[in-house]
Amino acid sequence: MVDRQAQAKQPVSAALAGPYGHPFHPILVTVPIGAWVASLVFDVASHLVAEPAFLTQGSVWLIGIGVLGAVAAALIGFLDLFAIPTGTPAFRVGLLHMSLNLAVTGAYAANLVWRSTEYGRAAPVEGGMLALSALSVAVLAVSGFLGGKLAYHYGVRVADEATQAQGYLPRGHEPDRPT
């Protein structure tokens, strides 16, 4: 079991997925999460102001940025998924996490196409577009929970406990590091 767990901690390609104990996927996911949550805020705010055009247009841009960021995060996430041994609970959670993220990215890509047909309109975001964004953010939250489970419960791409323990040694007791 320990060998299978250690396998999930090592990158498939450190150059692409990030070095041991410091994966790139969690850094990259901040782009789509932030963009899509902000787009939902813009959508709601477009119903609260007298001139909503800047908010509806800003939301379209944020959705596009989120889709591009999600593609980058997914490419690196695939590498992290490949490090997890198949047939394990961690792999099954990883597959579900990936599937939900792909569904959310597809929903936002569709939402982007839908909105591009009405780009520049001075009205608030339509109810259907807003509902699709809200549902997508809710599914994204579930997927994020699963991503947290992969890292914090199963330790995927997290340094082993001996490496982690080095961060808690008193000053002057750190192990010698080769230079």
From TrEMBL:
Stretches that traverse the bilayer: 27-49, 61-83, 95-114, 129-147
Domain DUF2231: 21-159
The keyword Transmembrane helix appears for this protein: yes
InterPro entries listed in its UniProt record: DUF2231_TM
Pfam families xref list: DUF2231
Record's keyword annotation contains Ribonucleoprotein: no
Keyword list, A-Z: Membrane, Transmembrane, Transmembrane helix
Signal peptide span: none
Protein name, entry field: Putative membrane protein
